[in-house]
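Hey all, quick one. A colleague (J.T.) asked me to put the flavin-adenine dinucleotide job into the tracker so the inputs and the structure tokens live in one place instead of scattered across chat threads. No bug as far as I know, just bookkeeping. Sequence used:
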Amino acid sequence: MTAMTTTIDRPTHAYLDALDTIIADVIAPHAAEVDRAGLFPRAALDALGAAGLLGLISAREVGGLGHGHRAAALVVERISHHCASTAMVVCMHYAAAAVVEAHGPREDREAIAAGRSVATLALSESGSRSHFWAPVSTATEDGNGVRLDAHKSWITAAGEADLYVWSSRSLAAEGASTIWLVPSDSAGLRVAAPFDGLGLRGNCSSPVVAEGVVVPRDAMLGADGAGFDVMMAAVLPYFQTMSAAMCVGLMDATTTRTAAHAGGTTFTEMGQSLADLPTIRAYIARMRVATDMARGLLLDALDALESGRDDAMLRVLEVKAAAGEAANQVTDLGMRVCGGAAFRKEVGVERFFRDARAATVMAPTTDVLYDFIGKAACGMPLFG
Ligand SMILES: Cc1cc2nc3c(=O)[nH]c(=O)nc-3n(C[C@H](O)[C@H](O)[C@H](O)COP(=O)(O)OP(=O)(O)OC[C@H]3O[C@@H](n4cnc5c(N)ncnc54)[C@H](O)[C@@H]3O)c2cc1C
């Protein structure tokens, strides 16, 4: 039996050929440096844009490739196999693009489809923390426009993306939120601190302050006060499945690299490899099983979304929690199996170990998801 690596499925699409070339030529060769120096993967984004892949989920009528959740998850998974930082930038781009596709102006939809605009989500705030559904930042009428003030706590690709899909309190509806499309070069926007993270170091996820940023009223995405509905309908299914795909990609890579290390590392006195030890093989088996279980749930979540199954929302909630926790366990086992050698970057496991830590604390966090899933299982309303 040969060593296995698998992907979400094995479709043949022209865009996957283009992606594989970009991965081989740009993303994989730069991954270690992107991580070490905390560099935004600009060359990768440029190449993805030129190949039409930033328009993957944009409608054909605006020049996009017209794909959906499955293709987005597949692209993120394949990239994550080599560079989770780049995978998360692309994940945020598609999640934001989904909102612009649903509610944005044609001009911005065309710019995203053509690869001219990179988009990202600006939901988390220092006041609401991971409770993205309850922003404390404000939107107020300002002449013919709207004034936005905020302390966003994390925006992936801060200062690098062109468009922020931005949440605020509603203009008029008490206790509700509104979503806006904010150009990143708007006057009054400031990246507050450089990103020097533990993992996903190349995604440049920094705090951003907005002081008196004025946008036109038609920068509103969806209705005033309908922010929660926009987040649940457009953002959540994409973000959850792509986050899970990022985890599956890095788990698969960690398992493959760990098995390769175990098979190629010899105890001289026994003339045996690490892989000859039953305990080591059992750890690798647990990594493989956890990875494939996460992949199985992801495939089922994608099936549920595509067929409009009754349990689609439950699967969407489950898939990020399951994959995020599994990614932490699998990368932890990878570090154990590879021993002291794992502390060295050449083995290629420690980067994924650090990257995986973000999966459980990115909103909705695992704890919040468990709360929602538990409420759903107990027949209770998710909110309120
Ligand atoms: C690498 C990275 C990139 C990011 N990129 C973006 C981005 O592009 N856009 C964006 O909007 N945000 C982004 N975020 C922010 C992310 O989505 C979360 O909002 C953020 O990680 C939460 O951190 P916090 O310190 O505010 O957590 P807190 O909200 O303070 O949570 C701390 C702990 O409390 C738990 N907790 C919180 N609320 C509950 C609850 N109700 N029930 C049970 N437990 C709870 C959490 O699970 C967590 O373990 C990014 C985060 C990271 C790490």
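Adding what we noticed when we looked at it: The chain has a mean pLDDT of 95. Residues 92, 120-124, 129-130, 153-156, 197, 200, 203, 205, 358, 361-363, 365, 367-368, 371 surround flavin-adenine dinucleotide (CB under 6 Å).
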